[in-house]
Specification:
The protein has about 500 residues and is an alpha/beta fold. Helices cover about 50% and strands about 10% of the residues. The strands form three sheets. It has a six-stranded parallel beta sheet with strand order 7-6-5-8-9-10, sandwiched between helices. Helix 2 (about 65-90) packs parallel to helix 7 and helix 10 (about 255-270) packs antiparallel against helix 11. The radius of gyration is 25 Å and the shape is globular.
């Protein structure tokens, strides 16, 4: 469960601990009190020891994804994709040979993404591999273009992943999400080959999965419907949370660990996934842990406003990679909602509507952390209403004015971040900047953080600079816009 962490907040020390309840990773926090650091450390060590004893006595449910769960993902994704391809082929007047060629190209592209990952870069080595395997250069380049096209959007929908997480009981860890994306890509590759009656079994894929999937006639866990183009005057909520949020919901107290655990246990009880003895053991372990911590242990979460922007896109990934906070991000369009879910946000709310009722509808309690990346002055009253007492509020933008008197009643601390402060003033901790960059570099090397660049404008000139600023000021972009390459010098 990790080593106990003691932090000073105001005049009191707090203790944080990570714990898994029914497969859900939670971050717990409780006040130790006003005392010396040595005394606080001793209490923290005792609490940590008690928690570890409970963990060893009752065990924790694994957060890994099982082969049976992946098989369900594969089966549903294969059947759905095959149905879609066959329907397109039947409705099309395109010659069968052209369909076969298109399916073959897509099958190769999906296979690449399943083996290398949805963010993998296509290289000349991959082109050489195809030509060595008998592809002509033109078709091999078409496969490369298909990979780029798929990666330009969302190769695997965040909504599809979320559906499988919920329906198949898969813990949404970074490793599990990657395995599901790869499995879905593999299923799509097989569907393309099956559609042309030229099925080629993948050595990395159990052959019986394909036969079982094709024989499976259960309703799809993942299904999409045709949606007309969005009408600005009539916004259509797309998630249960957003649908509930249309009607204001009374604010609720921050959710206690015991209440959250009981909700998880109730789900397993209804599904008959646990027997009575296991349920009693889990419930006893949670209550003993809560008692050892002094009672009223709460779950912490963070709200990231502007989650689809360049900074927000990075913040979501860092929060998932370096903490066990429940990450709530804001996004106002279907495209950006899918984007932030795919980056790892647990929940998405719409910042174009009042946010406090939407936060209340999640029933997670008031966020302990709020990070605003843009339009802070516009959202300030909403933030003051939704943030937890003694919460921490961070911002990076430059509002014309910022009246934080509304935070006084809740004793909210304000943290204004500027990346150049250390270098501008040569602060004593200037070396921390390098350590932070090294830490992010490690996450990138480990594949736990991916690029937030979504658009590239070239060359670098006045026209493209103006266009880049126009797009950013439109507040409809996602991720970062990159300018590259210089105009050729005039002769």
């Amino acid at each position: 469960m990790g080593f106990s962490n003691v932090a000073l907040r105001g005049s009191r020390y707090w203790w944080r601990k990570k714990m898994t309840v029914a497969g859900v990773r939670l971050t717990l926090a409780l006040p130790i009190g006003a005392m010396s650091f040595t005394d606080a450390r001793v209490i923290a060590l005792r609490l940590g020891s008690a928690a570890e004893t409970l963990r060893m006595g009752y065990g924790e449910r694994s957060t890994g994804v099982s082969p049976d769960q992946l098989k369900k993902v594969f089966s549903d994704a294969l059947r759905w994709q095959l149905k879609r391809i066959l329907e397109d082929q039947i409705a099309s007047s395109t010659p069968a040979v052209d369909h076969a060629s298109l399916n073959s190209r897509y099958a190769e592209a999906w296979t690449f993404l399943s083996k290398r990952g949805v963010d993998a870069k296509w290289t000349l080595d991959d082109l050489d591999r195809l030509t060595a395997n008998g592809w002509n250069l033109s078709d091999a380049k078409a496969v490369a273009d298909t990979v780029f096209d798929l990666q330009g959007g969302s190769p695997v929908s965040g909504e599809q992943i979320g559906t499988y997480v919920e329906n198949f009981g898969i813990a949404p860890t970074a490793a599990n999400l990657d395995k599901m994306r790869r499995t879905i890509c593999a299923a799509k590759a097989v569907a393309c080959r099956k559609a042309t009656a030229n099925l080629s079994l993948d050595e990395d894929l159990p052959a019986e999965w394909i036969d079982d999937a094709l024989a499976d006639d259960t309703p799809f866990a993942w299904e999409t419907t045709s949606v007309p183009p969005p009408q600005p005057s009539k916004p259509q909520p797309t998630s249960p949370v957003e649908q509930v949020a249309v009607q204001p919901v009374p604010a609720k107290a921050k959710q206690r660990l015991v209440d959250a655990a009981d909700a998880c246990i109730a789900v397993h009880e209804r599904q008959r996934a646990w027997d009575a003895v296991t349920i009693q053991q889990v419930r006893t372990a949670v209550r003993l842990f809560d008692y050892a911590c002094g009672g009223d242990v709460f779950i912490e979460d963070i709200l990231i406003i502007g989650g689809a922007g360049g900074v927000g896109s990075a913040a979501i990934q860092i929060a998932r990679a370096r903490t066990d906070l429940i990450v709530i991000a804001t996004a106002s369009r279907a495209e950006t909602r899918d984007w932030v879910r795919d980056l790892g946000a647990h929940h998405v709310i719409d910042h174009s509507r009042p946010m406090a009722p939407q936060i209340a509808a999640l029933e997670l309690g008031a966020p302990a952390f709020v990070f605003s990346t843009t339009h802070t002055d516009r959202h300030l009253a909403d933030i003051a209403e939704l943030i937890a007492p003694q919460g921490r509020f961070a911002l990076i933008d430059d509002p014309a004015s910022l009246d934080i008197v509304a935070f006084k009643r809740k004793a909210v601390s304000v943290h204004w971040e500027l990346m150049f402060t250390r270098s501008l003033f040569d602060t004593p901790d200037i070396g921390e900047q390098g350590r932070l960059l090294d830490a992010v570099a490690e996450l990138v090397d480990e594949g736990r953080i991916r690029t937030t660049a979504t658009e590239t404008l070239s060359p670098i000139n006045a026209a493209n600079l103006i266009e880049a600023h126009r797009r950013i000021e439109s507040t409809t972009t996602r991720g970062k816009i990159v300018l590259e390459g210089w105009d050729s010098p005039q002769a």
